[in-house]
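Lab notebook, design round three. We kept the backbone fixed and only want residue identities now. Task for the bench partner: fill in a sequence for the structure below.
Input structure tokens:
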């Protein structure tokens, strides 16, 4: 199991520098892309895209007026962002090199939707690890397309 997206597995993190494009903007990271998708306001999207760091993009994304369908589309948005990121051949090879390992976005910031928080406060909470699941889904998509 890969249970943290840091060190040699930092490339799995949404904060990893991996420029992607969607036809509107050039995003420095998946985090920038994901946070912009929370709103339909193009000016706000531009502001988030221009954020200096993924952490700043995340902060800005917390302040936007969420699009009405956000809860219905957020997983699809994340999967599309990951597909764009891992269309890069070097990153794709790194993802494939994880083999059949379970991918878990272990964290300490209480995110039990996208990952699993390992703090004492969260240890008995149900966690979804959606980012890990989507990465494993994408890894299988890539394998089956080869």
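Proposed sequence:
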């Amino acid at each position: 199991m890969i249970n943290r997206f840091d060190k040699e597995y930092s490339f799995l993190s949404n904060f990893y520098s991996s420029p992607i494009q969607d036809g509107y903007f050039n995003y420095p990271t998946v985090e920038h892309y994901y946070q912009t998708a929370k709103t339909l306001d193009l000016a706000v999207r531009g502001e988030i895209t221009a954020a200096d760091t993924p952490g700043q993009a995340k902060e800005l994304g917390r302040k936007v007026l969420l699009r009405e369908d956000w809860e219905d589309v957020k997983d699809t948005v994340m999967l599309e962002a990951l597909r764009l990121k891992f269309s890069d051949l070097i990153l794709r090879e790194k993802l494939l090199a994880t083999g059949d390992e379970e991918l878990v976005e272990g964290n300490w910031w209480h995110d039990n939707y996208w990952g699993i928080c390992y703090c004492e406060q969260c240890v008995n909470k149900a966690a979804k690890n959606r980012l890990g699941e989507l990465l494993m889904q994408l890894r299988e998509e890539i394998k089956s397309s080869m």
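Keep this in mind before ordering anything: The mean pLDDT is 96.
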